[in-house]
């Protein structure tokens, strides 16, 4: 089930192509009423459908070119406290709960290998973190993306 429909998908694709477009311009390009576009943009804003702007800023441009993922095994009784403490480490860019050998995968950005060592130590020092493994990103093969999913939504609803 999706919260978005074909019109939403068309509007999102237009924003992917022209991120700074005004509501009036988007309405014109898509053949929609300006109020329809504004209502959808407002709804997305209210429901946090679009990711925050900081997701668009590359850590590389901020002086942190080295990326890594830290797998962390945690004391399950302290998991939420661990996550709260990880929020305080500026170099932590994301944290996801996973199944498998680790409980958390922690995305980090660092200035260099020495800085990564320091950040990994900060993570390991969080009460409730029992052990960690670090995997350095050698190359970004497919950057985070949702456009193919948006395109699919636009196509699937074409036939209904």
UniProtKB/TrEMBL annotation:
Gene3D superfamilies: 3.30.70.920
Residues making up the signal peptide according to the UniProt record: none
Coiled coil (residue ranges): none
Pfam families in UniProt: AsnC_trans_reg (PF01037)
Keywords from the UniProt entry: DNA-binding
Recorded GO MF terms: DNA binding
Annotated Transcription regulator AsnC/Lrp ligand binding domain residues: 74-140
Protein name as it appears in the record: DNA-binding Lrp family transcriptional regulator
């Amino acid at each position: 089930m999706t919260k978005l429909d074909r019109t939403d998908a068309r509007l999102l694709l237009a924003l992917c192509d022209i991120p700074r477009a005004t509501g009036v311009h988007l309405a014109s390009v898509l053949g929609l009423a300006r109020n329809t576009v504004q209502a959808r943009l407002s709804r997305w804003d209210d429901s946090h459908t679009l990711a925050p702007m900081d997701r668009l800023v590359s850590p590389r441009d901020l002086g942190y070119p080295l990326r890594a993922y830290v797998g962390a095994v945690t004391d399950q009784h302290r998991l939420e406290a661990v996550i709260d403490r990880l929020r305080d480490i500026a170099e932590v860019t994301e944290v996801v709960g996973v199944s498998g050998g680790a409980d958390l995968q922690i995305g980090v950005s660092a200035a260099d290998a020495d800085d990564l060592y320091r950040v990994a130590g900060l993570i390991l020092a969080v009460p409730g973190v029992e052990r960690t493994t670090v995997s350095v990103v050698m190359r970004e093969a497919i950057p985070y993306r949702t456009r193919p999913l948006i395109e699919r939504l636009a196509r699937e609803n074409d036939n209904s």
